[in-house]
Specification:
The chain has three helices and no strands. The chain is mostly helical and about 70 residues long.
């Protein structure tokens, strides 16, 4: 194998840093939502729905799925 040819799935240092930062932000957002009381979550959900957004948990789940997918 030629050492100067990167494997298709391997990220360079900068891309890996960006992915790590995005994953850390996702974990922080998920932890924040998980730590909300039921009343706080309900209040935020009403505000989000009023702004035309869907479920906060569904948005976080979708973001987590898209963060795990390799760039196309």
């Amino acid at each position: 194998m030629r050492h100067w040819i990167r494997d298709g799935d391997e990220l360079d240092w900068y891309e890996q840093q960006l992915r790590n930062e995005a994953e850390a932000e996702q974990r922080r957002a998920q932890a924040w939502v998980d730590d909300l009381t039921d009343d706080e979550l309900e209040e935020l959900q009403r505000a989000a729905t009023g702004a035309g957004r869907s479920s906060l948990r569904a948005e976080l789940a979708a973001a987590a799925r898209s963060a795990g997918e390799p760039d196309g």
